[in-house]
What we know:
The longest helix has 47 residues, at 159-205. The chain is 62% helix and 12% strand. By secondary structure, the chain is α/β, with parallel strands linked by helices.
Amino acid sequence: MSRPGLAERVRVEQMRLLLGNVKDAVWQTALLVAVLLWALLDDYNARPLAAWATAILGLELFSAWDARRALRRLDATTWQSQVRRQMALNLADGLLWASLTWITLDTAGLGGSVLVIAVMAGVAGSAMSSLAVVMPVFLCFLATLLLTIAAKLWLLKDPAYGALALTGILYCMTLVGHGRNLAQSARAAIDLRFENLELIARLLRESENAREAHRAADESNLAKSKFLAAASHDLRQPIHAQGLFLTVLERSALTPAQRGILQSVTSATRATAEMLNTLLDFSRIEAGVVQAEVRPLELQPLLNVIENELAPQADAKGIVYRSRETRAVVRSDSAILALILRNLVSNAIRYTERGGLLIGCRLRDGHALLEVWDTGIGIAPADRDAVFREFHQLGNPERDRRKGLGLGLAIAQQLARTLGHALTLDSEPGRGSVFRIELPLAPRGELPAARPRWTAVASIAGARVLVIDDDEAVREAMRQLLRDWGCECDAADGIADALELAARVLPDVVISDYRLRGTSTGADAIAALRAVHGPQLAALLVTGDTAPERLREAGASGMTLLHKPVHPRELQLALAGVLREGSAGG
C-alpha cells in the first residue's frame, strides 16, 4: 500500500460488506427453511428436521444480531477478531446446512433428493456472493459444507451419489475461483474509492496544483472504467451460464416447491443481469457504438411496453402508476427511446415513496413533449446538473444496491443527445420532479408497414449448432439449452477444436464467444471456419466485454452481436434470424 493504514482500512471495509450481507439474510433463510419443511417433512424425519430448522434459524438470527452489533464497533482494532468470529459462525452454519443431507437423503424420494442437492448448490453459490469478499470466511463455510455432504454421499454406496460428490467438488472449486475474482474486484473497488477520496482531499489542500490534480483524476476515471469493464466481464460469464441452466431447468418436470425455489433464483439472476446491463449500456455509449435509426413510430405501443414492464414495481411500493393515452407519431429510434424512458421511469419509481407517477405526452409547436412526472423527493436547484453525472445519487450515502448504480440519468441524457432530443428537468424539493423529452412529430402516413411475425422455435429445430466458448460452464449450458430446443450441438473451447469438429460434421450456424483464450477472438474463429467451409456459414457473436475498445472491435465485425447475460428468448430469435439470412443467401 502506498501509505500507512490503508491496508487496515480496506480490510475493515471488506468486513463491513460481509457483515452487511449477513444481517440482511435472515428472511431469505426463513423462507427457504419453510419451503424445505413443507416439501420434505414426513413421519421418519419429523423430529430431526424440526430440530434442524430450529438450529439453522437460531444461528441465522444470532448471526444477524451479532453482525449488527459488530458493525457499530468495527474498526482497525477489531476486524481481525471479527474474521475469526465469522469463521467460527460460518463453520457452524456450513455444518448445519450440510446436516440436512444426513437427515433426508436416506428416506427422501427422487424429487426430495434433487431438491436437497439443488438447495445445497444454491446455498454454496449464495455464500460465494455474500462471503467471498473475506475469503477465509467463505472457504471455512464451503469446506465444512462440502466435506460433510461428500461424506454422506460416499456413505450411501451408490455410484450415482459418488459421481454427484465428485461433481460437487468440481462445482466448489469453480465457486472458489469465482469467489477469488469477486474478492479481488471488491478489493479493487475499495482501493479505488479510497484513492478517489485521497485525490479529492489533495485537490482541496493544493489548489496551486490544479492542473496536475486534474490529470490524476482523469487517470483515476480511466482506471475506474477499466475496472468496471473487467469486473463486468468476469461476473457476466457465470451469470450467463446460470441463466441458460435455469431456462433448461424451467422446462423440466418440477414439484411446486421446486418451481417456487426456481422462480426465486431466476428473479435474483434477473436482477443481477439488469445491473450488469446498466453497466453495458454506459460502456456502449462511451465506446461510441450506439447507432441510431431514426424513423417514424407510434408512442402508445412504447408506453404500453414500459407500463407492462415497470408498473408492477410501482405496485410493489404501493404507489400509483398512470399513463395517458396518445396518438402521437414521432421521429426517433424506438429501441433507444425505450431505453431512455425506461431509465426515467425506473428513476421516478425508485425515488417516490408516496403518491405516484404519471407518463404522458403533450403536443407543442410541431413537437411532442414526452413527460415523466413523480411525487418523489424532488431535486434542489444546486443538484440538477449533478444528477446527470455518472455514479451520482441523491439520498443514498450508504450506496444501497437496491437504489441502482447512479447511471440511469447519465445514460438517458447521453442517449438523448445521440438522438438529438432535448432532455430537461423541472423539480421542487419535497414535492416531485418532471423529466421532459422533446421529440419531433411525424405524419401518420409515414409509419412503416407492420412486419409479419414468425415463430423462432420452428425456425431452429433440427439445426446443427457449433458453440465456441472457453468457459466450460457456458459450453455445457449452451449444449443443454440448444438440445432442449431440438438442435444438434457441438461445443469447442477454441479455434483448433472448432475446425476439427466442423471438419467431421459441418454446422448450420456458429455461436462464438468474442473473447477466447490468448489473443484469439470469436471473429477470428468464424473467419477461420468460413475460410474452409465458405462465407455462407451463418454465425453470431456473444460477448461479456463492456470495455469500449472491445465493443468497437466486436461491432466492426459486421456479425450479429449479443451481450452476456443473453436472455434465452433473445438468443433464440437471433439464431432464427441468422439461419433465415443464411438460407436466403444460399
